[in-house]
Design goal:
By secondary structure, this protein is of the alpha/beta class. It has 2 domains: about 350 residues, 4-Layer Sandwich (Purple Acid Phosphatase, chain A, domain 2); about 240 residues, Alpha-Beta Complex (5'-nucleotidase,  domain 2). The strands form 7 sheets. Strands 4-3-2-1-13-14 form a 6-stranded mixed β-sheet, with helices on one face. Strands 6-7-9-10-12-11 form a 6-stranded mixed β-sheet. The chain is globular and about 80 Å long. The termini are far apart.
């Protein structure tokens, strides 16, 4: 009880300090009132909140919670201001709402009887629509269905029912690549219709069609994913009866790896090859920009991307002339960092934060005998990356032989492990000497990845490293470095007896100047067992595309390569196969961990 009181006290005092310290924000934006035949309709959009409901940086000490510059409870202030200024406001979220912080993870897996905090947040702010993102599927279908039941429950005095809208997520029992009746999954409406002072508006939600590439079938059971272009084409004539057509979608604007990933980021294609769309809000790519894209009729259509983690809100007002059909746009992306906290929303969500800290994040799971460094990631071995790769190898095989009884093919750890430095920075003490808490796991690994042990040839491993080496930059002193943005796409290969040397000064494709295993140079046809995460295995980060462009034949998600997958180990529970839980379980089982570097790779 004393800890709970301490956390609540910290929480409320931090909120009061931050609210008092932040200037009056951007002020109230002026929206032209409807005058004569002109009606102003305002569209607000959030996206990729990734669990950032509270103003807490979960990589910092709990004493600092409530002081973070980002959070949904800041967005809430702006949303309320706009609603007070303009009665004609539509509010939607473009997805990836629930995954990304220990707060939302804890309630998804450990407090399923409670109303989900992310769903409650949208209901408190009277959102009109949620479009599902790909990360909504990470926790499995039972959890997602429960969350969506919370979201779409009948309105109460304090909360409003929110519609789920994913026009291209179809009922798999009646839809396929060969035939479609366009019956939606769960019967969700493909689009919503609103009337604002005589202006009719259709708002369509389009999810990302690549879920089947990123999650196991059990996580999207019952859904057929149609492309966003074919979906809009199906409804285009039907939508033409409305004055305005607006799209909220969890698709990036223009992806670089369409051959590998399919239509993950294809909003540009959607707009360019159609007519009738007046405005698009996008998510998924974590872009912070607005662009004009010319449609098939030569009209320039605004497309707005709203960044991530509650840092920006998209705000577009369309002045529509009912007599002439003419439109004018006021397009904004409003910075929400350090915007004043809405105290009413904060009070409603406060108990979620306190419970998450008390009952989950502050649990001690082990002890570090020394500091783990993540300094100079990408240019030299580190105690931190060696730890992550060791854990991946220990987690990605059938440790006790019970997963596949009678089959010993998956009972041996992999020879190599590949991991990107998926941390929040390059801290010298990413794991500090002393007690390690469960909450620390969220600064060690940011995503809900699981792992595959697969077969790769020596040529494939070498080419993989060649692509990682393309991320190396050279400073004014001729030294190699990797930018923080590139670290997510820079992979380190680890293995006992495995070593390599990269020369960043050599031309692309010849930077791996040495690659040995047990002291002998690796041959192209040499075979390795390798641990990779699901994102890389399905083509994420461009590695598969690079391999195939450089003489390899690597099929993304190739089942014939798979020896073991942590996601399939259902006896542990679905969350147990994910990265952060593997790290936590490793620390728990060892009780104490000691920083040591065993890697011998180098960059010259």
């Amino acid at each position: 009880m004393q800890v709970r009181k301490r956390v609540l006290s910290l929480l409320l005092s931090a909120l009061m300090v931050v609210t008092a310290a932040v200037p009056g924000g951007l002020g109230t934006l002026q929206v032209q009132a409807a005058e004569g035949d002109v009606v102003s309709v305002e569209f607000l959009a959030t996206s990729d909140l990734h669990g950032q409901l509270w103003t807490t940086d979960y990589t910092a000490d709990y004493s600092k919670m409530g002081t973070y510059k980002r959070g949904f409870i800041r967005l809430a202030s702006y949303i309320k201001e706009r609603r007070a200024a303009n009665p004609n406001v539509f509010l939607g979220d473009c997805g990836d709402l629930i995954q990304g912080t220990p707060l939302t993870y804890y309630y998804a897996f450990y407090q399923q009887e409670a109303e989900d905090p992310s769903m409650k947040a949208l209901r408190l702010l009277d959102y009109d629509m949620l479009v599902l993102g790909n990360h909504e599927f990470n926790y499995g279908m039972p959890i997602l269905k429960k969350q969506l039941t919370d979201l779409t429950a009948a309105s109460t005095e304090k909360e409003s029912k929110v519609d789920v809208c994913v026009a291209n997520y179809l009922d798999a029992s009646t839809n396929s690549a060969d035939a479609k009746d366009w019956k939606t999954w769960n019967g969700y409406a493909p689009y919503l219709v609103r009337n604002y002072d005589g202006v009719s508006v259709a708002i369509m939600g389009l999810g990302n069609p690549c879920i089947s590439k990123w999650d196991v079938p059990a996580n999207w059971q019952g859904i057929y994913f149609a492309g966003i272009e074919e979906t809009y084409a199906h409804y285009q004539e039907e939508l033409s009866q409305y004055d305005l057509v607006v799209i909220y979608t969890h698709n990036g604007i223009d992806g670089e790896n369409k051959e590998t990933l399919g239509f993950e980021d294809s909003v540009s294609d959607l707009v360019e090859n159609s007519t009738g769309i007046d405005l698009v809000f996008t998510g998924h790519a974590h872009d912070n920009k607005d662009v004009l894209i010319e449609n098939a009729a030569g009209e320039e259509i605004p497309v707005v991307a709203e960044f991530t983690k509650a840092r920006v809100i998209g705000d577009v007002t369309i002045d529509y002339n009912k007599a002439t059909g003419e439109k004018s746009y006021d397009v904004k992306r409003v910075d929400m960092e350090n915007y004043p906290v809405d105290m009413d929303t904060a009070v409603e969500l406060a108990s979620y934060e306190t419970h998450a800290w008390n009952d989950y994040m502050n649990e001690t799971i082990g002890v570090a005998t020394g500091d783990y460094s993540a300094l100079n990631l990408g240019t030299a071995p580190s105690t931190f990356m060696d730890l992550v790769n060791k854990i991946q190898m220990q987690g990605a095989y059938d440790n006790d032989g019970t997963n596949t009884p009678g089959d010993t093919s998956d009972d041996t750890p992999a020879m190599l492990s590949i991991s990107a430095p998926l941390t929040s920075g390059d801290a010298t003490e990413i794991i500090k000497q002393g007690d390690i808490t469960l909450g620390d796991m969220f600064k060690l690994y940011r995503f809900e990845n699981w792992f595959y042990q697969i077969r790769m040839s020596g040529k494939e491993v070498k080419t993989w490293l060649e692509y990682a080496a393309t991320k190396l930059k050279t400073d004014e002193n001729g030294e190699a470095y990797v930018t923080s943005s590139d670290l997510t796409y820079y992979d380190i290969v680890y293995g006992e007896g495995f070593s390599y040397v990269l020369d960043h000064t050599k031309p692309e494709g010849s930077r791996v100047v040495s690659m040995t295993y047990n002291g002998a140079e690796v041959t192209d046809d040499q075979q390795f067992t390798v641990v990779v995460n699901n994102y890389r295995f399905n083509g994420g980060g461009g590695y598969v595309e690079y391999l195939n462009a450089n003489g390899c034949n690597f099929v993304a998600n190739d089942e014939s390569r798979v020896i073991y997958s942590t996601q399939y180990d259902m006896r542990q529970g679905e969350d147990k196969g994910q990265a952060r839980n593997l790290i936590a379980d490793y620390i728990r089982s060892n009780k104490s961990i000691t920083p040591v570097i065993t890697s011998t790779w180098s960059v010259k």
